[in-house]
Every structure is written in structure tokens, then in C-alpha cells.
Amino acid sequence: KNQVEQSPQSLIILEGKNCTLQCNYTVSPFSNLRWYKQDTGRGPVSLTIMTFSENTKSNGRYTATLDADTKQSSLHITASQLSDSASYICVVSFNFGNEKLTFGTGTRLTIIP
Amino acid sequence: KAGVTQTPRYLIKTRGQQVTLSCSPISGHRSVSWYQQTPGQGLQFLFEYFSETQRNKGNFPGRFSGRQFSNSRSEMNVSTLELGDSALYLCASSFGSGIYQEETQYFGPGTRLLVL
To answer: How confident is the model at residue A84 (pLDDT cuts 50, 70, 90)?
Structure first.
């Protein structure tokens, strides 16, 4: 079982709508949790980085939240645009003597006009 | 400021051959890390170099190796290619506090390798 699970696997929403992507993890405690956006055929782009002690981090229309009790992180996208169509990847970094980088399998988001 | 560049962008090899991929980091960045991305396994960490030394390593066989030069440019080598090595190989650079720290990594466009 993957230590970082993302849901849904894919999502289709209308332009202008909001959406929320989920990342559930079992690695705990961890150093930081990152969200990346990856356009088709391109490398990932960093959206947010949160440490274990942070609850929320925003980057424009992207807001990531973290609930350490339920071991969940969410990425909320507001007022979606066609350019938001991409894969979104959650990455958990564990750095306490036994360093480990664990990637989620991603959520494929499609925005339709 | 130029971004991370990777060459070549596309590559076709046959089983048993070896391949070398190149990555030029953003100017001033001293850390370069490499990742493999496949549809089945997603993104996986290969290794990280800092100041010409391998600082961290993922769970890949010894056929995968790398090095970093004094100008921070890095190369990755895969020997005795297997069909399963077909993937997008991404490199990322950062100033240098490390892949496990809260430092933004900047990814290149990747090299797509097809092994026949």
C-alpha cells in the first residue's frame, strides 16, 4: 500500500468552479508536504510547501491545508481556469534519520469551458 | 534567469545499451536531483547531488548512476538498459539545503527515454 494516496484519480469540472483535491498519507511525522502541478509533457512546478506544524499555505488561487490528526492534506483551487488542467502531485518528505521521499500517484484535473 | 535545461529531450535506445542524460541547473543552484516518472509507478526519486557529491539516493539498482561537475551540471547514466527503464527522467535544481528541506525545487522539462 502506497504511503501517500491521492483522490480522486481524475476530475472534470467547469471553468470558473472550485475544486478540492485530497492527499492522505501514513508517513508521520514528516518534514514537509508539497503540492506540485504538472502540465502534460512538462516538469512539475512547485505550488506549496508546508511543514508538519503548518495548517495552511496559499499561492494565488491555490490553497493547501494540512490536518495532522487525520493525516490529510487538501489542495483547493478557486475560480478554476482552463490553464489549471494538469496533474497535481502530493509529495511527503520524511527526514528524521531515515530520510524518505514519498510521492502520490497524482490527480488528473481537466477544466472544460 | 534561464530555467533548468535537460538534454536530449527524446531518446530511443535498445535493450542492453547504455545512455547518458544531462541536466544544467539554474545559475547559482548547487543541488541537482533526478527522478524517474512512469505511468505505472508515478514519480520516484533516483538521487541527489550537491557540490559534486551524491548526498541522497533512492531505491534504484546500481545500473543507475550519476555525477555532478564543478559547475553544478549533472549527468545521469543508465547501463544495460531494460524495457522497464522507459520513462520520463526529470531533474530538479535548488540552492542546496536538500530535497528533504523546505526549499523550492525547480524541475526541467525532462528527457523521455524509450527502450526497445
So the answer is: very high
